[in-house]
Structures are given as structure tokens and as C-alpha cells.
Amino acid sequence: MLIRLVASRIVISLFSLLVVSWAIFWAVEWLPGDTAARVLGREASAESVRVLRARLHLADPPLVRYGHWLEHFVQGDWGESLAADRPVVRYVFPRLRNTLILAGLALGLYLILSLTIGVVTALFHGQVLDTWLSVLTLVGMSMPEFVVGILLVLVFAVAVPLFPPLALMDQVKTFPGLLYTLSLPILTLTAAMTAYAVRMMRDNLIEVLESDYVQMATLKGLPRVRVVLRHALPNALGPALNVTALNIAWLMGGVVVVETVFNFPGLGRLLVDSISFHDVPVIEAIAVVLASVYMLANLVADVLVLVLNPRLRAS
Amino acid sequence: MRGPPAPVIDVDSLIVDFWDRRRWTNVVHGVSFHIFPGETLGMAGESGCGKSTTAYALLGYHRPMSRFNGGAVRFLGRDLLRLPARELQKIRGAEIGFVPQNPATALNPSMPVGHQVMESLEAHGACATRREAEDRCLGLFADMGLPRPKVVAGRYPHQLSGGQQQRVVLAMALACHPTLLVLDEPTTGLDVTTQARILSLLARLRARYGMAMFYVSHNLGVLAQVCNRITVMYAGELIEVASTAELFRNPGHPYTRGLIASLQQVSGFVGTQPLLRGLLRRDALPLGCRFAPRCEYSQPGCFTSPQSLATVGDGHEVACWRWPDIPAGTDPADKGTV
Ligand SMILES: Nc1ncnc2c1ncn2[C@@H]1O[C@H](COP(=O)(O)OP(=O)(O)OP(=O)(O)O)[C@@H](O)[C@H]1O
Ligand code: SF4
Ligand SMILES: [Mg+2]
């Protein structure tokens, strides 16, 4: 069952990646302007532009160019950047590392926060604490992430200068230093994700806490902590896991915006820059990487849901 | 000279309310009864009258969004309604076992059933080692008549039949040899054959463990098979208490008579007692006798004067001021039914 699921998902994912790369290629193709003109600038002569276009094979028909790129890509050759004469891999991977650090930290904080706040609000459901936290999550849910980011910068970097307003990675030496530098972008990303997951966690847990088996666990004389952690929580996690997969997908887009707001050298900023240069190999590489992370997150979530729920596992 | 033995549990004027959207609504209204060691006391009454609520109270438990609003539940002298949570934990599942209304939903769907039984044993320190808990769990499963205990222990609830689930839940309730077993309609969801098997299993278990039982059912016929004494509840109040034989021979309250009559109708016997008409409507209870809107014998006075249990014979109590006037009719018990 599990193996079948994983295998079929991998096949579907590979097919989706193909579709994604195809769609991205045409989207860039339809954007006005081209790489050669952008690289050489306004004053360039028509002649030099033509020479560069020929060198970059930009004069070839689009289908030929796509086929050429795909052929190399599936063989593991991600090609050269059009805008700068550098292999795409050397370009993309340092940025990917930065983005993964940012996204990973945000995700970690998100998991801790949504679990604890979700459990606490469910346990104190209907009381003052729950009401306040619920209002807070509703506010968080209704604000776009760049608004949250700008608000956080205004409050914690400008009004009360606690944290740096820009996330400059070059000066980072230690892990606490890293956390300090990235604190505002992490908080921005976490705020948007947590709000929704807390809501989900809380509502599920409240429902599960009223179930017969939780009541039975209480009537067996188990301590409250065990009733909540061992009987209620695992049965409330399923839907929250699906939300988490969605959140990771959102995160892949969210970082693009947040990296721009905080001038953070990650994949997102690279993507924005590359689009302005029509740098197809770099754009394709980033799109494929982000889409793969997205699909992997979904697969992991689905596997976990199966593992947690024996009833689904059997069928 | 020896008096009667001290009761295992003594419920005294129990009042339970629940939060119904915007106000507290009463569910159980001043209920009192007791159970002696080794005795089985039944509770009959139609759906929604407050049987489960009373059963939970015997473990000092009330559902979320509800509250105890008076009375006492004394278990071996200690009032469970005033006991701190830690003390209650030690009693629940150890000294008082609980068998739920619906075993299919009362078992945790994501935990093997063996674990759920062992967990109970471990929480109450009944076993020194995991190994011992496992052996004891398998022994209990065998006692409950479950085939291949080891296989069953590893199963998840959805992989068991209704009857098997009920046996697992029974094993869980009996794991620590309780003094009192509370059973909330333990056979309602089961087919007739399985129900009969579970009932005979219960009879054997009682002979073996000697625990007292509180047995809730909407079916008087089932109660007749297992109980020494029976209480009848209507709209949150007890309206009759008697020994099983006395209740069927000499039912006092019109509601009890109606229950017995519908039982006989089901079994093909045409009695002379009027059948029950209408349904319990909690939103339209009169100030006086709560049964008055549905009673064949009601008089204007019934609607205004509240009725409470009064002794009418040896251990027989009825909450109806008119009971002596009500024609006894043809006594169904004489015809050898039930
Ligand atoms: N949280 C609650 N706690 C207690 N009673 C509640 C609660 N919510 C609703 N009630 C109402 O209290 C009444 C008594 O419920 P209870 O479960 O005790 O009845 P019952 O006699 O066991 O019925 P059934 O035969 O259907 O199980 C019902 O009318 C029910 O709707
Ligand atoms: S008190 Fe009156 S209404 Fe109530 S049961 Fe007796 S006769 Fe019927
Ligand atoms: Mg019930």
C-alpha cells in the first residue's frame, strides 16, 4: 500500500515537473524583451545584440531551444546561465542553501508554535486565553505576508530597534547570530503559516477531546496529560498534517516575497532577478527545485497521515 | 444483631445540569439509590432520560459542558463529586470499571486494542513489568471468550466485530478487578445472539469476580435477566424502585406498567395494561408529576403536585400518589410471561 502510493506519486510528480518546465518556458518566451538586449543595456548596437543572440542560440526556434534544454537537464546538466557566464548549478545551490535555512527555521518555529498554541487553546477552549489567541490567529490569517513583514520591520527594527531590518547573510558567523539576523523574516513567514494551522489544530483537537474514546480514556483513570497526548493528539494530527503540506507549498512562494522585502540572498530573489533577465536555464532550475520541494512535502504528509491512521492503511 | 451491609455506592439527591446554548438545563433531578456488594442494580428508561449521565456520575465524571449541581456519590464512604482529580484517577478504571454504550467509538481507532487494555493495567500499577501486563491482558481476553487472544491484542478496533469489541471493552473494565462495574447499555448495538452470549458471559464474570454492577438499559427485558433490583427513570427522576420479581409482579407506576406492556407486545402477548403513548418532551415538563402529559390516569392535581418516591411495600418505592387507585388489571406475571 505504502510502496504503491510512493511509486505512483513519484511517477505523477515527474510528469508534473515536465508540465511545469514546459509552462514556465512559454511564459518566459511570451514576456516582452530578451536576454541579449537586457545584458547589453540600452546603448548597445543592433549588431552586438545580434551577435550575442546568436551565441546564446536565442535565434533558434523556441521548440528547439526547449528540447535542447530538456535533453541536457534530464541528463543532469543544468546548463549555463544566459545572463552571466556561469553554470546554473553554481548559481542556484548557494541560494537554495540560504532559502532552505530560512524556510527550515520558519518551518521549525511553525511546528513548535502551532502544536503548543493549538493544544493550549483547545484545552482552555472557551476561556479568556483561548479567546485572545483565537483573535490573534484570525488577524494573522487575514493579513498578507508582506504586510506582516513590513509591520514587523516597522515595529521591531525601526520603532524599537531590536532586530536587523535587512537579512544580510555575509556577516553571519554563529547559529545564534543566524537566528538574530533572520529573526524578522522567520517571524514573518511563521506568522502567516501558524495562524491557519493553529486554527485547524484547535478545532480538530476540540472535536477529538469530545469523542467517546477520549472520554473512555478518562474513565479508565488515565492522567489528563496522557489522555491528551496519547489519545487525543495523534487522532487530531491528520488534518493538521495536510495543512502543513499546504503551508510548505505556500512557503515556497512566500519566501520569494519575504526575501525581496528583507533583501535576503535566497532562491526567491534570484528568481525575481532571473525573470527580469529572461534567464531561462536559471528560472527553470529554480522552478523545478521549488516544485520538487512542494511535491515532496505533500508526499511526506500523505505517508504520515497513513501511518497515523490504521484504518486508511488497511484499505 | 446485624444490619444490612454497607452499600458499595450510595447516590444521594444527585443533580446534573448541562449547558444548552445559553443556559443551564437540568438533566438529572435529585436521584438517590444505592448498590450493595455483589448486587446488580438496573436502570431502565427511554432515550434521553438521563441514564448515561447518571452512569457517568458513578465514576465522578460529567461530560464537557455539564456540571454537578448538588448531591453526593459516596463510593465506600468517599464522595466522588468532591474528590481531587488525582484521587479520582486512582478509583476510575481500578475500583470502578466502566463499559461504554458504544464500544466501536469508545476504543481509540489508532491504537491496537491490546495496548489499550495494558495501558489501564500500567496506569494503576497493577503489573510490575510490561511482560506481566501483556500476559494479564491475554489472560483477560481468553476469559472474555475471545479466540486467539494474541492475534486480537494486535488488532485495531476497526478490525474486530461488534461482539469482539464489546469483549475487549469488558476486559478493559475488569482488568484491575473492580469492586463496582458500571455498564451503559452494553449490548444495545449487538444482534440478539451476540447479546445473549455477552449476557451469559456477564453472569459468569459476576460469579467469578463478585463485583457489584450498575446496569443501564432502555430494555426492561434485558434488565430482568441480569438484575437483582431495578430502578425506572423518567425525565431525570426515579419513578420506581423494586426488586426485579416485585417490579414485574406488581408494577406501581403507570410508566413502568407501560414499559412492561410494550415489552409484552413485542413478545406477542396481548396484555390489559395501556401501552405508552407519546414521547418524552423535556421542553414541556409540568411542575407536578413529569409523566402527567402522557399518563392515562392523570388528574388535574397531578400537573401541580411534584411526585417523589414513597415506600409502597418491602423495598418497593413508587413516585405516584394515585398508585393505590389505579386498577391492578390482569396481572401479566400470573400468566407466566417475562
Ligand atoms: N453535555 C451534556 N451533558 C449531559 N447531558 C447532555 C449534554 N448535552 C446534552 N445533554 C442532554 O441530556 C439528556 C440526557 O442524556 P443521557 O445521555 O444521559 O440520556 P440517556 O438516558 O443515556 O439516553 P440514551 O438512551 O439515548 O443513551 C439528553 O436529553 C441529552 O440531549
Ligand atoms: S402522579 Fe398522576 S400523572 Fe403522575 S403517574 Fe401518577 S397518576 Fe399519572
Ligand atoms: Mg445513554
UniProtKB/TrEMBL annotation, chain A:
PROSITE patterns: ABC_TM1 (PS50928)
A matching Pfam family: BPD_transp_1
Cell membrane found in the keyword field: yes
Tagged with keyword Magnesium: no
Top-level taxon of the source organism: Bacteria
Membrane-spanning ranges: 7-28, 100-125, 146-166, 178-198, 282-308
Domain ABC transmembrane type-1 per the UniProt entry, residue ranges: 96-301
First-listed, main subcellular location of the protein, grouped into a coarse class: membrane
One GO term describing the cellular component: plasma membrane
Any one GO BP annotation for this protein: transmembrane transport
Localisation: Cell membrane
Assigned keywords, A-Z: Cell membrane, Membrane, Transmembrane, Transmembrane helix, Transport
Coiled-coil region: none
Record's bilayer topology term: Multi-pass membrane protein
Family that this chain belongs to: Belongs to the binding-protein-dependent transport system permease family.
Descriptive protein name: ABC transporter permease
Provenance organism: Candidatus Segetimicrobium genomatis
UniProtKB/TrEMBL annotation, chain B:
Keyword Translocase: yes
A GO CC annotation given for this chain: plasma membrane
Record keywords: ATP-binding, Cell inner membrane, Cell membrane, Membrane, Nucleotide-binding, Translocase, Transport
Protein location: Cell membrane
One of the GO BP terms on file: peptide transport
SMART domains attached to this UniProt entry: AAA
Domain of life: Bacteria
CDD domains per record: ABC_NikE_OppD_transporters (cd03257)
GO MF term (any one): ATP binding
PROSITE patterns reported for this sequence: ABC_TRANSPORTER_1 (PS00211), ABC_TRANSPORTER_2 (PS50893)
Any Pfam family: oligo_HPY
Chief subcellular location: membrane
Bilayer topology: Peripheral membrane protein
Limits of the ABC transporter domain: 9-260
PANTHER family: ATPASE AAA-TYPE CORE DOMAIN-CONTAINING PROTEIN, OLIGOPEPTIDE TRANSPORT ATP-BINDING PROTEIN APPD
NCBIfam families, per database record: oligo_HPY
Family: Belongs to the ABC transporter superfamily.
This protein's name: ABC transporter ATP-binding protein
Organism (species): Candidatus Segetimicrobium genomatis
